[in-house]
Amino acid sequence: MADHQPPIPECSVCLSPYDNAFKAPLKLPPCAHTFCLECLAQLCLFMKPMQLLPCPLCRAPVTIPPGGAPALPVDTNVISELPTHQRSHICRVWMEGSELCHWRLQPPYNRQPMAEDGTRDAVVRIQLIHPTSSLSQPADLITVRGGRRRHQCREICRSFWCLTSLVFVTMVTLFSAIFFPIYLIRWTR
């Protein structure tokens, strides 16, 4: 009979197994749902400074700490379910613009050439958004229409002068439709 190994836990957004670097399991404080660092960093990438991130599962509002998604707490329960070689050391990950970065420590017996400062360590980076130049043609883009007109109408209606003009046009229309015909009837008699 083969040994039954428990499945490696995975992120419920990207369905990738957790690890101890870019796919580190992070727990969202209010609801305790867990997602990988890379998915949360992509969700936080275009957020405004005081904007709350909705949890991808339950939509509970989450305050992202200074430092972005890498500053969220690691889920130690999920870490305990990882293979032993991944449990020992969780990499310190940080964001630089739209990139996630971490130090990859090279073992001393590695045959890679040393850097100028005498170390074999390296910074590993992944790009969270891909440049648009990778698209083969503009036809690859999906165009969504209609939302802009609704947004413009909302913005115009919030203007004081627009509301004043709208009330004036409504009054003129009512006068023309109701009172002017009555005036004409009396005039012809």
Automatic annotation (TrEMBL):
The biological process GO terms on file are: protein ubiquitination
> Any coiled-coil ranges, and where?
none
Q: Where are the transmembrane segments?
A: 158-185
* InterPro entries per the UniProt record, alphabetical: RING_finger_E3_ubiq-ligases, Znf-RING_euk, Znf_RING, Znf_RING/FYVE/PHD, Znf_RING_CS
Q: Which Pfam families match?
A: zf-RING_UBOX
Q: Which UniProt keywords apply?
A: Membrane, Metal-binding, Transmembrane, Transmembrane helix, Zinc, Zinc-finger
Q: Name one GO molecular function term.
A: ubiquitin protein ligase activity
The keyword Metal-binding belongs to this UniProt entry's keyword annotation: yes
User: Boundaries of each RING-type domain copy?
Assistant: 11-59
Q: Does the keyword Transmembrane apply?
A: yes
SUPFAM superfamilies, per this entry?
Answer: RING/U-box (SSF57850)
Q: Kindly provide the name given to this protein in its UniProt entry.
A: RN223 protein
Gene source species = Polypterus senegalus
Gene behind the chain: Rnf223_1
